[in-house]
Design a protein that fits this description.
With 326 residues, the chain is α+β, with helices and mostly antiparallel strands. Helix content is 25%, strand content 42%. α6 crosses α7.
Length: 326
Amino acid sequence: MPVTSVEKDLNTLSMTIVADFASPLQRLWDAYADPRQISKFWGPVEWPATFVRHDMATGGRSHYYMTGPNGERSDGYWEFTAVNAPHSFEVNDGFANEDGTPNDMMPSMKMKFEFEETANGSRMTNTATFGSVEQLQQLIEMGMEEGTRSAMSQIDAVLEDLATFAAGKGTELQILSDTQVRITRVIRGTAPQVWDAHNEPELMKRWLLGPDGWTMPVCEVAQEPGEQYRQEWENTKTKERFGFEGELLESAAPYRSVTTEKMIGMEGPSTQNELTFTPVDGGTLLTLVITYPDVATRDMVLATGMTDGMETSYLRLENEVLASAE
């Protein structure tokens, strides 16, 4: 069990938890930065967590929920106020509603996570600061210390599972709910490089092509929230064309953008695409959370095998665009 000490200080309204690990500092940091990995240990054993949003950058947000043994659900959020990779990050932490907005009826706190190298690996120090003695007491009575110990008991297995999260594994798809999926891929490049490759038309036309035999004759990019974008592809042999269009809803370079997406000429509601870039060991973790209007639409799209085409594009991005930028 990695937790080595827990100290409560009523004078400073804080609780400090120290945990030691046999893994290198960067490996420990990446476990917190990757939504796939932190989901495996943030919740207690009996209340596993699912992170549906995780923007690990100053100004970013996270939204997660924990599922109880009888199907109960408890949502939480983080607001990142400072990030200094791979040494520390600070968040406002609290309970959330199911849409990720703060639940102001419940207590909240500030948390600072600090990471440092040790002779045997790495250490994490988590200091939680509360707004009042009553909030501190309330969270202690709700089992915060016991829950944290239970959650941390799972992290060693995550840190040792290097193969599952290796950079060369390729594009992965995870179903989060009836209407949401998450697609992840570690791209060999910096976050600004990967951001530019997703936002500069001339670069996009070089790699965002799916299987061989397609070109991208139309690539209109939205620069500011509220603007529209349009992308069209053409088969070099059959001249068949298709495309997507939508609106840019949020943009925070170089780590997050949110858009709507709809196939050109098709009726019905759009999807919402949340794209996040997070620096990790080996490059930049690309995370794409897609929200579909219903389960039928989700299953119809997944049946197309879209991740195969995405993997082909990401390989082209690494080998033909980012490699030439080094």
